[in-house]
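Comment thread on ticket #2218

A.B. wrote:
> Attaching the input chain for the structure job we discussed in standup.
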Amino acid sequence: MLRSEVEYPAAVEPVAFVLNIGPDGFHATAATFDFFSEKKDSETKVGNVLNLEGGVGADFLKGGLVAGLAYYGTFKLTDDQFDSPLASRLFRDKNRVWGLGPEVTLALATKQAIYGFVTVRYQWELAARTATEGAAWNIMASFPLKPIRIPQP
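C.D. wrote:
> Ran it. Output below, let me know if you need it in another format.
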């Protein structure tokens, strides 16, 4: 199937990122905006969405361990538009939800090189509107293509 034949709406997602590193820790925030077009052969249009994700934390073990508080927020900026009047009545509110919880990242390293990172995060959902609230465990691992050499003093 050619891309022009796909019936899903097209989306554009610009990204902004802010990082502040100080002597006592750091703060990072990434913001994305999802702008959607109309669905092909339909008047249905998904509302635009703002997503925020970030955290605050500090490093330990000479940077080998980072611990802190991670957060995210998802906010529907514009209403969804539906072909059906019934669907329009059922889904009238804009969704939003916050997530908040602890995060720990451990470097998989020796004295000479870093081989990867493992991150464990648990987040509780708060202040959800038009959606259920829950919680989530995330365990992520990332590995560079080549080990990162650590300069020796």
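A.B. wrote:
> Thanks. Noting for the ticket: The chain has one helix and nine strands.
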